[in-house]
Request: fold
Amino acid sequence: MKATDAILSVTSLRKRFAAVEVLKGIDLTVTPGAIHGLVGLNGSGKTTTMECVLGMQSFQSGDVRILGRQPADIWQCHGAVVGIFDTPGLHSGLTVRQVLTHARMLCPKPVRSPAEVEDMLGLSRYSHYRIRQLSLGNRRRVSIAHALLGQPQFIVMDEPFNGLDAGGVDDVLALIKDLNSQTGASFLLSSHQLAYLESICTHISILHNGRIALTETLQNLAGTASTQLRIVCDKADAAVALLQSDPAIRISSHEQNQLNVQTVGIDAAEINRRLVMAGISVSELQELRRGLHQVFQDIVNAPADSPLPEAS
Amino acid sequence: MISSFWVALRAEIYVGLRSHASRLVVILPALIACAQLVLTSMLTASREASETMFGGMGAGQIEGADAWGTLVDAYATGLTLIGLLLAGYAAWSLANDKDSGVLRHLLIRHASRRTMLMVKLAHAHLLGIASIAVLLVSCTLCAWLIWDFGPVVEDGYELIGTSEILTELRLGLLLAIIPLPAAITMGLLVSVLAGNSTQALVAALGITLALDILKGIIGAASDYIYASYLVSLLDSSYLRDVSRLVRGFSDVMINPTTLQMNQWVPWPQAIFLLLLAWYAINRKPV
Reply:
């Protein structure tokens, strides 16, 4: 894909705060229709990346194009780009309805009324509450409601699940999915909630040590990563001897009649077949597929001088 | 850019009409000035009652001076507050939008940083116009209900006629209003440079008061500072002279050079401060 076709294209982005280089050459591309998750440890530079992308912070070098424009000119997209930040940016003295009316005034092509978006986010009963009277979760809902007044093409969300209760998280996840499927809106989400990202993202980028350590589609991440198996059988020693002979299989641990193995490209059924053929009775075989959490852990726990683990 | 300016200004006015800070800027100066008028009228009535009781109005008493003098003092009090509040509001406004994150939504969706600077500048000026209008109307009405206005007379001789008083009063007010845009742009510059809204507010008020003190120290050079023409706590504006004039002092006369400086010095300073803010706003994180 050409950079010009991308919703967001970040090339060699470097950002320094005094002597500390936070971003050491970020490369990131968000494709049309993608829900792109950006994950990283606290202080890894997720928010800084988003702020640079949206023109809130200057950067030392690199190129950022968002819908083909530079960050300082995003306003010329006239509402096609929306940012929802960790701290909801709302006038605390206004009511929910007034905040949304104000946001609608600034929306060039509004497609929904304040009452409609209040209804969509369960804010109707708080319509006449001042923002300062709302909980953090409800403030975040109002902040998200901003995005729904118009028809954005690209929504950047920094920690969208912070402060939300379980129901609120489900609502936001459903909204992201609906907006993505119904309007084709692309998303860049940053969060520590890997499970939530895993449930909606099409792409994941892991930010570590100031660089994008891994960018992959979620499908590839799940399909190409190695698989953990837990096997309970009657002849554990014989099973270890058999499986160790295959270089695609690594024995992680072995205890009495239970062993944990890591495989690449060999599925559980094949392992079971080999053991049974060797006369070993398998009483339990459990596949522990490596998820985003495991991939993330592998990357952040890798020694600084070792090559980063790859997903494919 | 022009259309985004008008839409953003309209949205700013929408918020301003519902904000306590904006209401405070418009109403507080008029409220304090009217309170000063009422209090002075009560003190005057009490003094006159006392004089009547102990021997009546003495010879040499100037008639009409209380009414005009108190009204000009009330205007001066109101304009002092307006100068401080507008500088403070301009400093607080943009910095507060940065603190709360509101500015981010505007910058992403609708307007450039420089457009937002101009919107804040225009909004502060609209607030200034509103607060001056409310001050003039409420003080004039309040004074008109309390006193009878007419020429200033001493021992049967007219010292100064009503039309001359009104002419000087109009000039005094005009000269006091001219430096307000410079005070607003100083506040905006501080707002752009400050780290947060508290810092911005404190710095803007501090600079205003520091300039007030400075103008008394630097002598003739103070003619080149816009703050010399603002009505302030250490007042050196022409309105202070008008206050003496309407009390029957005959030595009041504005120097033509001072008049020229008052009319022209604040404008280039306002433009210079605005250019600095214009340059700085694209270089600060929001």
